[in-house]
Design goal:
The complex is a heterodimer.
Chain A: E1 3-4, E2 10-11, H1 18-57, H2 63-68, H3 70-75, H4 89-105, H5 108-118, H6 122-132, H7 138-147, H8 154-161, H9 164-176, H10 189-194, H11 196-213, H12 224-236, H13 248-260, H14 269-276, H15 284-291, H16 299-304, E3 307-310, E4 313-316, H17 324-355, H18 358-369, H19 376-387, H20 392-399, H21 415-438, H22 444-451, H23 456-484, H24 488-493, H25 501-510, H26 515-539
Antiparallel strand pairs in A: 1-2, 3-4
Helix pairs in contact in A: 4-11, 5-6, 7-12, 11-12, 17-18, 17-21, 17-23, 19-21, 21-23, 22-23, 25-26
Chain B: H1 3-9, E1 10-19, E2 28-36, E3 40-44, H2 51-59, E4 66-71, E5 74-75, E6 86-89, H3 101-111, H4 116-129, H5 145-157, E7 163-167, H6 175-192, E8 195-200, H7 203-209, E9 212-217, E10 220-225, H8 227-232, H9 237-242, E11 247-257, E12 260-265, E13 270-275, E14 284-289, E15 308-317, E16 321-328, E17 331-339, E18 352-355, E19 363-366
Parallel strand pairs in B: 3-8, 3-9, 6-7, 7-8, 13-19
Antiparallel strand pairs in B: 1-2, 1-4, 4-5, 9-10, 11-12, 11-14, 12-13, 14-19, 15-16, 15-18, 16-17
Helix pairs in contact in B: 3-4, 3-5, 4-5
The chains are: A mainly alpha, B alpha+beta.
C-alpha cells in the first residue's frame, strides 16, 4: 500500500517514490508517441528547419573577408583609421600576397561583391587591382634575373626551397607521367629557417599552382612576391647562403652583393597599389576592410533597417539608400488594409453560409472554395487582365459613362492593385474560420435577444457579434500573417509602389545574390510576425481563436 | 361557446390562424384559441403537430399565413418581436455566453434604456426571486443545467412582461430536477399573475402544471380543456391515446339509449359504453377505458352490466400499484392497474378472470 516518507513524498507499493514510478510508467508511452512523430520530425528538421536556420545564419555570417584576405586582416590589426593616413608598406605587401592567391582562385570578385554592399565601388576597385597585382614588384624580379638568369628558371626555385625528399618524389612522379596528382610541395627545413619569408611566399605559390591551376611549380616562374621575399630575406640575413649547398652559395652571394650594390631596388607595393587605383592611397578602402573583417557582422541587419556601420559607429544611410523601413511599413499597412477589407467582405458571406439552408449554403461554400482550386498564378494573372487601364473593369466604367475614356483609372501596378488582388486571394482564409465559429452560434441567441426587446441591430451587435469575435480573430491572424509574407501577387500586380518586403527579399536571393541581406530581412520579418503574434495573444488571447 | 363574449376579456387570441412554410401543406390549420389574463396554458402534442410554430407566431419569429393574432385586443401580426414585450424561455435557455448572469438579466432593461440604479434593483430582485442572488457574477457556462434554467426564467421575467412563452424549457433536465422546476415555474407564474403559454411534448408536465391544456395534432387543437377533463373525458381517440395510459377496443355500436350504448366488439363480445363520438347504431367506434377504472371484483360492479373474460398474461409489481397485462377480446395489450392494498388480489399468469367497468368510464370514441 502507499505510504508517506518523512518529507511527505508518496510511496508506491514497492517502496519507491510514487512520482518516480509514475514517470517510469509514462516514459514508455512518451517514447512510443515520440517514435510516431519521429519520421515527420526528422523530415521537417532536415528539409525545412535546418536549411532555414542555415539561411538565417547568413544574416550575421561574414567569413569571406577573413578567409580571402587573412594576411591583410592580420596586418591591419595595428592600424587605426583614426590616424587619417593609409597603413604602412607591410599591409600593402600582405594585400598583394592575399590578392595573388584570391585572383588565382577567382575569389576576389566575390569579396568585391560582398564589400560593394557596404561601399559601392569596391567591386570595381578589387577587379581592377586584381588585374594589376601580377605585375607588382616586377622591377625586383627583373633585377634578380639581371643578376643571374638562373632565377628565371622555375626549377631554380623548387630546387632551392624544396625538401630533398619532395624533389626526388616529384622527379619520380614526372618520370612516371601518370594521371595521379603531383605530390604536394614541401619546403626544406633549411629554407624555412634561413629564408622564412621566401619559403612562406613560395609555399603559397606552389599550393595555388598545384591545387587551383593544376600546374607543376617546376614549370611556372613564381610570383614577383617570391623574388621580393628572397631579397628581403637576404637583406635581413646576408649569411643565409651558408646553409645551402655549394652550388647555391655563389648565386645567393651574388644577390646579396647586387642588393648591397644597389642593383636590386627595394619593393614598393604601396606605390604599385596607388598606381593601380588612387583609392588605395587613401584610408577609405582600408577602413572598409578593417570594419568588415570580423567573422560575424551586424552589417546586414543594420542595412535591413536603413543604417550602416562606419568606422565612427552606426549611422543612418543616405536619403537615397533608405528603402527597407519604408518597405516594412508599407507591408504592414497594406496587410492591415487587406485584413480589414477581408473582414468587411467576408463577414456577411460567412454569416450567410452559417445561416442559409444546407442546400444553398453548400452551393455558396463551393463558390467560396472555388478560388482555392485555381492556381494562385492564374488568379493573379486574371486580375492583371481585369485591372489594367485597357482592361475589363475600366472598359465597363467607360461604357457606363462613370469614367472618361481619356481619364481611365489606374488600378494596377500600384497599391490599389495589390490590395484588390490580395483581398480576393486571401478572402477564403477569412471566411472559413468565421464560418466555423458562426456555425456554432445557435440562432436562438438572436431570437432570445429580440424577445428581450433588442432591435435587429442591437441583437446583432450585442449578442451575435461578440460571439463571432474569435472567428474574426482567427481569420485576421491568418490573413495578416499570410499577407505580410506575400510575394507572387504584389510582384505581378504591385508595380513599383505596391511591392512588399518579401519581393525585396526575393530580389536579394535571386538577382543581387546578397543572401546575407535577404536573410537579415527575412529574420526581421519573422521577428515582426512573432512579436505581433505575442501582442495579439496578450490582447485577444490565443485561446479565443478558433480555426474550425 | 360564445366567441364574442370570450374575445372581450381574452388576453391572447388566435383567430383562424393558418401557417404554411412551403405553400403546399399547412402546418397549422385553422387555429382558434383565446386565453384570459393570468392563465397557464400548455400546448401539448407530438413533434410536428404545430405547437412550436404557434408559439413562434405568437413570439413574432414566424408570421401567420392567414388569420389574426391579438394580444390585449391589439392585432400583433405586423409587430416585430422586440416590440411585443413578450418574455420567452428557450429550450436551451439561450443565455448569452459572453455575459455574466447579471449582464444577461440587465440586457432587456438596458435595451429599454432604464437607469443603472433601476436596472441593478430589478436584476437583484429577479435573481432573488429564483434564489440565484449569489450567482450574479458567474458566466452561464459555470452554472449547472438547473441553475441556467432559473436564470433563463429570471431573464424572461425581469422586464415584467404580461405574457411569458416557454418552449420546452425543462427538456434538458433530469427527472428529479424537472419535477422540482415544474413546481417552481407554476408557483412563480401564479404568484406574479403572469399569463403563460408553455409548449411541451411531456404529458405529465402538461397535466401537473397547467390551468388548461391544448392538445395539438396534425395542425389542429384536438381538445382544449383543464387537465382532469382531458384525462377523464377525452373527446376523441387521439386525445384518449395521447394522454395517459389507455386501453382500446374496436367495435360497432349496436344500441344507443341516452347516456349509454352497447358496443359489439370485433371478437363478438358485448360491452357497455358512454357514447361520445358516435351518433347512430352501426357506427364504427374505438372504445377507450383507463387501466385503473377496470374492475376485477364482480361484487363492486353495477348489476346487469356486461363483463368480459380475460386471461392474465403478465403480472408486474410496481410498488404502489400492480400492473396486470391481460388478453381480452383478441387484444393482448389490455392493461389494468390495481392499488397495492392489503385485500388486493395478485393475479397469476394463465389465470382466467372476469373484468367489467362502469359504463360512464368506457368512452365510445371515433374510429381512427
Amino acid at each position: 500500500m502507499t505510504e508517506q516518507t518523512a518529507d511527505g513524498l508518496m510511496l508506491a507499493a514497492d517502496g519507491k517514490p510514487l512520482k518516480q514510478s509514475l514517470n517510469r510508467a509514462l516514459r514508455r508511452q512518451k517514447l512510443r508517441a515520440f517514435l510516431l512523430i519521429a519520421p515527420l520530425l526528422i523530415f521537417v528538421l532536415v528539409t525545412f528547419i535546418a536549411p532555414i536556420g542555415d539561411m538565417l545564419f547568413r544574416s550575421v555570417e561574414n567569413d569571406i573577408v577573413a578567409d580571402t584576405l587573412p594576411r591583410t586582416v592580420a596586418a591591419l590589426a595595428d592600424w587605426s583609421p583614426d590616424s587619417g593616413a593609409p597603413p604602412g608598406e607591410p599591409v600593402y605587401r600582405a594585400l598583394a600576397s592575399d590578392l595573388l592567391i584570391a585572383v588565382a582562385a577567382k575569389t576576389h570578385t566575390q569579396l568585391g561583391t560582398r564589400l560593394n554592399y557596404e561601399d559601392s565601388g569596391f567591386s570595381s576597385l578589387l577587379r581592377g587591382t586584381g588585374r594589376d597585382v601580377d605585375d607588382m614588384g616586377e622591377d625586383v624580379g627583373k633585377a634578380l634575373v639581371a643578376v643571374d638568369p638562373v632565377w628565371d628558371e622555375p626549377v631554380t626555385w623548387t630546387n632551392l626551397l624544396g625538401d630533398p625528399a619532395w624533389i626526388s618524389a616529384q622527379a619520380d612522379w614526372a618520370k612516371a607521367g601518370d594521371k595521379t596528382p603531383e605530390p604536394p610541395f614541401v619546403p626544406s627545413a633549411a629554407a624555412q629557417k634561413n629564408l622564412p619569408l621566401t619559403a612562406a611566399a613560395y609555399g603559397d605559390f606552389a599550393r595555388v599552382m598545384q591545387t587551383v591551376k593544376e600546374d607543376s611549380p617546376t614549370e611556372k616562374r613564381p610570383w614577383n612576391t617570391v623574388a621580393v621575399s628572397l631579397t628581403e630575406d637576404l637583406k635581413a640575413n646576408p649569411s643565409a647562403a651558408a646553409a645551402f649547398g655549394a652550388d647555391w652559395q655563389p648565386r645567393l652571394s651574388a644577390v646579396v652583393a647586387a642588393e648591397q650594390g644597389g642593383a636590386i631596388p627595394a619593393a614598393d607595393f604601396m606605390a604599385a597599389f596607388t598606381e593601380s587605383d588612387k583609392a588605395w592611397g587613401t584610408p577609405q578602402p582600408w577602413e572598409v576592410i578593417k570594419t568588415f573583417s570580423p567573422r560575424f557582422t551586424s552589417g546586414y541587419f543594420l542595412n535591413a533597417v536603413d543604417l550602416k556601420m562606419t568606422p565612427e559607429g552606426i549611422a543612418p544611410r543616405s536619403e537615397a539608400e533608405r528603402v527597407y523601413l519604408m518597405l516594412f511599413l508599407r507591408t504592414m499597412v497594406l496587410s492591415l488594409v487587406i485584413t480589414g477589407t477581408c473582414i468587411l467582405l467576408g463577414y456577411p458571406v460567412a454569416w450567410l453560409l452559417a445561416n442559409l439552408p444546407a442546400r444553398t449554403a453548400n452551393l455558396l461554400m463551393i463558390l467560396v472554395l472555388l478560388p482555392f482550386w485555381t492556381s494562385l498564378l492564374v488568379r493573379t494573372s486574371a486580375w492583371k487582365v481585369l485591372l489594367q487601364q485597357q482592361g475589363v473593369i475600366n472598359d465597363l466604367l467607360v461604357w457606363a459613362g462613370l469614367v472618361a475614356d481619356n481619364n481611365r483609372l489606374v488600378l494596377i501596378n500600384n497599391q490599389t492593385g495589390t490590395i484588390i488582388a490580395m483581398t480576393h486571394i486571401l478572402l477564403p482564409f477569412m471566411i472559413l474560420p468565421l464560418y466555423s465559429v458562426m456555425k456554432t452560434i445557435p440562432p436562438s441567441y438572436l431570437r432570445a435577444a429580440k424577445s428581450l426587446g433588442a432591435t435587429d441591430w442591437t441583437a446583432f451587435w450585442r449578442v451575435y457579434f461578440p460571439q463571432s469575435v474569435p472567428g474574426i480573430g482567427a481569420g485576421s491572424i491568418l490573413v495578416f500573417i499570410l499577407a505580410i509574407g506575400y510575394y507572387i501577387t504584389p510582384e505581378l500586380v504591385g508595380g513599383a509602389k505596391g511591392v512588399f518586403i518579401s519581393n525585396r527579399i526575393a530580389y536579394h536571393i535571386g538577382t543581387s545574390l546578397n543572401w546575407g541581406l535577404a536573410a537579415a530581412l527575412g529574420s526581421l520579418l519573422l521577428v515582426v510576425v512573432l512579436v505581433l503574434y505575442w501582442v495579439y495573444d496578450r490582447i485577444v488571447g490565443i485561446d479565443n481563436v478558433k480555426l474550425g | 361557446m360564445a366567441e364574442g363574449a370570450m374575445a372581450n376579456d381574452a388576453f391572447v387570441v388566435f383567430d383562424r390562424v393558418q401557417k404554411s412554410y412551403d405553400g403546399v401543406t399547412l402546418v397549422v390549420k385553422d387555429l382558434n384559441l383565446s386565453l384570459p389574463k393570468g392563465e397557464f396554458l400548455t400546448m401539448l402534442g407530438p413533434s410536428g403537430s404545430g405547437k412550436t410554430t404557434c408559439l413562434m407566431m405568437l413570439a413574432g419569429f414566424e408570421t401567420a399565413t392567414h388569420g389574426e393574432i391579438r394580444l390585449n385586443g391589439r392585432n400583433i401580426n405586423t409587430v416585430p418581436p422586440h416590440k411585443r414585450g413578450i418574455g420567452m424561455v428557450f429550450q436551451n435557455y439561450a443565455l448569452f455566453p459572453h455575459m455574466t448572469v447579471a449582464e444577461n438579466l440587465a440586457f432587456p432593461l438596458e435595451v429599454r434604456k432604464l437607469d443603472k440604479s433601476v436596472r441593478d434593483e430589478k436584476v437583484k430582485r429577479a435573481l432573488d426571486m429564483v434564489q440565484m442572488g449569489a450567482f450574479a457574477g458567474r458566466r452561464p457556462s459555470q452554472l449547472s443545467g438547473g441553475q441556467q434554467q432559473r436564470i433563463a426564467l429570471a431573464r424572461a421575467l425581469v422586464f415584467e412582461p404580461e405574457l411569458v412563452l416557454m418552449d420546452e424549457p425543462l427538456g434538458a433536465l433530469d427527472k428529479q430536477l424537472r419535477e422540482h422546476m415544474q413546481f417552481e415555474i407554476t408557483h412563480l407564474a401564479h404568484n406574479l399573475g403572469i399569463t403563460t403559454v408553455y409548449v411541451t411534448h411531456d404529458q405529465t408536465e402538461a397535466l401537473t402544471m397547467s390551468d388548461r391544456v391544448a392538445v395539438f395534432n396534425d395542425g389542429r387543437i384536438q381538445q382544449l380543456a383543464p387537465p382532469s377533463e382531458l384525462y377523464e373525458a377525452p373527446v376523441n381517440s387521439f386525445v384518449a391515446q395521447f394522454i395517459g395510459e389507455n386501453n382500446r377496443l374496436m367495435g360497432t355500436v349496436t344500441e344507443i339509449t341516452g347516456e349509454t350504448c352497447v358496443v359489439r366488439l370485433d371478437s363478438g363480445d358485448i360491452i357497455d359504453a358512454k357514447p361520445v363520438n358516435v351518433s347512430k347504431v352501426g357506427d364504427r367506434t374505438q372504445v377507450s377505458i383507463r387501466p385503473e377504472r377496470v374492475e376485477t371484483n364482480k361484487a363492486r360492479l353495477r348489476p346487469g352490466v356486461h363483463t368480459l373474460k380475460a386471461e392474465v398474461t403478465e403480472f408486474i409489481y410496481m410498488g404502489d400499484i400492480f400492473r396486470t397485462r391481460l388478453k381480452v377480446a383478441g387484444h393482448d395489450d389490455f392493461v389494468i392497474k390495481t392499488r397495492n392494498a392489503p385485500d388486493q388480489i395478485r393475479h397469476q399468469p394463465g389465470q382466467m378472470i372476469e373484468i367489467g367497468w362502469l359504463p360512464e368510464d368506457c368512452r365510445a370514441l371515433d374510429a381512427p
